[in-house]
Amino acid sequence: MFKLLKYSLYDIVKSRFALLYTLFMVLVAISIYQVSEDMSKVSLSLLNIMLMIVPLISAIFATTHFFNNLEFTELMLAQPVKRRDVFLSQILAVMFVLSMAILIGFGAPMLLWGADITVLTLLGIGISLSIIFAGLAFLASVLTRDKAKAIGISLSFWIYFSLIYDGFVLYLIYSLADYPLEKTTLSLVFLNPVDLGRVIMLMQLDISALMGYTGAFFQQFFGSAKGILLSSSMMFIWMLWPMGLAMRVFKKKDF
Amino acid sequence: MISVQQIHKKFGKLEVLNNFNLEFNAGKSYALMGPNGSGKTTLIKIILGMVLPNSGEVYVQGKSIKGSFSYRSNIGYMPQIGRYPDNIKIGQLFSMMQDMRPEVKNYDLELIEAFGLDKMMDKPMHTLSGGTRQKVSASLAFMFGADILILDEPTAGLDPMAAETLKNKIKKEKDAGKLILITSHILSELEELTDHAIYIHEGEIFFNDTISSLKEITGESNFSPAIAKLMEWSLKKNTKKTELTHV
């Protein structure tokens, strides 16, 4: 397992993608740090960029990586190694590289210009989203034999969680405005990792006061120990299930 | 050594292998033949556990391969198209494969030297030509002295000299008592290397016996016309079929 992981990691790190992605993250972080001195403004801008870009790049990269490495996967499957280990070495290598890019890309400027708890939360959310979308991308990849189709499915995951889902929630809130919807919206937030990340982050900042009664309710919930525990375990479930499901399919797949 | 029992495999609606039974014994070499898409590679992949059959069992050295992975340490496999990670070097690929089989201590490096690969250990895989990749695949298949060798179109893409080197190596391993399974469309090569012919047609075994009895049954003294006749018969699907199937 660790031998396989070592070689998959070596292969990804050697490819130019990892370097370019990290460089891109550093550039984004530096430019935003230059604009403002206020730490909460910085983390809010970083958050907005991250919530759009990190899932997109994670999904696309993980899918292309899976298909580019398909022949190598086949080669490994003919060796005396477990299928589970072949799968895990591939996916963990991708997750590791994506996480490191965020950690270094956003972390290096933070070391230079200082960080607080909000920026650290931001790092955590970025890494979680990378893992979640890499998992979803691998799920899309094992479900189809066609690279273009798999990229299409990965992209629709991204569009769904980043755009469509929010539209749906807004529509629901707007049309049911006369009813108390706090608990409903809370559970809806749990069903979308991007929204979950956003809300966890916003609750760290002081702008929740602008969000009316729902904002106050959220603030109370996510501020409590129970809320923190629940939201982080929900994030954790989001990281695990796409990967677990993809592994189940992978174990029964024909190569 | 390998026993394939009642294998049934469908890809969607397409039936690739239908009620497939085969026995492969140690010390023999088998030629696996059949038109394109007849299920040769699928059969090989089922034996390797890369494709999972819908029903049926495969036994390698007496043990069912279902859910097992360690049996593969006894198989040397050369794929039809060997593609490798772009950024890895030849030497690294070899040491990686050696890492995968920690129980093997003595490596058979004969082919690596014969192909001259030992002089280009630092070349990354993506700079290699198709033929050189094929040489790498062949070296890997023979490296661990496995008792079973499965070669999917071994000489396709190799230059005549390298093909000859590989063929000599295959003969040598055959004489050493290993089980060799070859698919190829180059009949002269199969005649040279194998003593047992298996002809697959539309997912069923059409012929399975020694090459000498194949010549006898078809009434041809040469291998190629005998196979051509077999193909002709299989396309007609005439009554000879029942007479021919020895399994």
Can you describe what's shown?
The complex is a heterodimer of chains A (255) and B (247). Chain A is 85% helix and 0% strand. Chain A is mainly α and 255 residues long. Chain A has one domain (2-251). In chain A, helix 3 runs antiparallel to helix 5 (83-113) and helix 6 (117-143) packs antiparallel against helix 9. The longest helix of chain A has 31 residues, at 83-113. The radius of gyration of chain A is 19 Å and the shape is globular. The two termini of chain A are 20 Å apart. By secondary structure, chain B is an alpha/beta fold. Chain B has a domain at 1-68 and 195-247: Rossmann fold, CATH 3.40.50. The longest helix of chain B has 16 residues, at 160-175. The model of chain B has no long low-confidence stretch (mean pLDDT 85). In chain B, the strands form two sheets. Chain B has a six-stranded mixed beta sheet, sandwiched between helices. Chain B has a four-stranded antiparallel beta sheet with strand order 2-1-4-5, covered by helices on one side. At the A-B interface, helix 1 and helix 4 of A face helix 2 of B.
